[in-house]
Amino acid sequence: MSEIPSPLARRSLLQQRIVGWYAKEARDLPWRARSASPWAVLVSEVMLQQTPVVRVEPVWREWLERWPTPAALAGSAPGDAVHAWGRLGYPRRALRLHAAAVAMVQRHSGEVPTTPSELLALPGVGAYTAAAVSAFAFGHRTAVVDTNVRRVFARLVDGAGQAAPSLTRAEIDLATALLPDEVGEARVWGVAVMEMGALVCVARSPRCPDCPVNDLCAWRAANQPTYDGPVRPSQPWHGTDRQCRGVLLAVLRATKKPVPATELDAAWPTDDAQRDRCLDSLVTDGLFEPLPGSRFRLPGR
DNA sequence: GACTCGTGGAC
DNA sequence: TGTCCAAGAGT
């Protein structure tokens, strides 16, 4: 029984293999083009929060054509952003992106800020997105830890089938330790690991034969033991407030005219109390603008 | 930390 | 058919 060297001990080999794999196998995504602006990168990152690439790409193209700069978006009504968001899900992200555009106009001369603290201060920009923009848009040597990176490292280094339900400090430290020393390599490293997680080291049915570092993988060396850590509770859908909100929002998204409350009643007829509760929350969130005469529309200026 | 927040595709 | 999952953030 031969012992494989730990991936940490062979960091440079890991980097070389994964970056080499990326150069050959990476998808040609528009926000990765050299011509992509920091704004274009930021928009892509927010859209990609919990939403698959295939659904983001066409919407991203429409957004960037319509709003090529933060100032352009800031000049539109928030409701226009929600409408253009389409069915990407989590529509509050559209509002936050709009609010971020307004903030960039107010505080940063209409530019995407470059420091981590300034990025984090933008609505809708958390630890992941701030790191991603820092690395991908500005080429900073920043560790990017998303769900793909977490899964790849969980398997490769920890020998676990999947990452824990929530991000730990140890994962941040590991990702930082594996970051290439040289800025130029670090720039590609993050997106390369993410791409590995998205295309090869996927959650279900990983394609280990196609993996450039399968001979260094602790999980594979251990014969792919089943994950036995804490379980993430599954999210119910049918009959939830989220489904109700989605139905109500779809009604407003389908028209530019104010919608009478009676039309919303018809869209969710099963539970009056739930519908009213969701309507209230949509108004509170700023996704619905109430108008005189019990009517609603997407928020204007 | 635990919850909440959309949507649709894959198996 | 129902469950899992997808470049998370805010409270």
Distance, first to last CA:
68 Å
Order of helices and strands: HHHHHHHHHHHHHEHHEE
Q: Tell me the quaternary state.
A: single chain
Shape by Cα distribution = globular
Rg computed from alpha carbons, rounded to a whole number of angstroms: 22 Å
**CATH classification, class level of the domain at 241-297:** Mainly Alpha
Report on the biggest sheet.
3 strands, antiparallel
List the helices and strands and how they pair.
Blueprint: H1 11-25, H2 38-47, H3 53-66, H4 70-74, H5 78-85, H6 92-107, H7 116-120, H8 127-137, H9 147-156, H10 169-178, H11 183-199, H12 218-221, H13 241-253, E1 259-260, H14 261-267, H15 272-285, E2 289-291, E3 295-297
Antiparallel strand pairs: 1-3, 2-3
This protein binds a DNA duplex (11 and 11 nucleotides) through helix 2, helix 3, helix 6, helix 8 and helix 9.
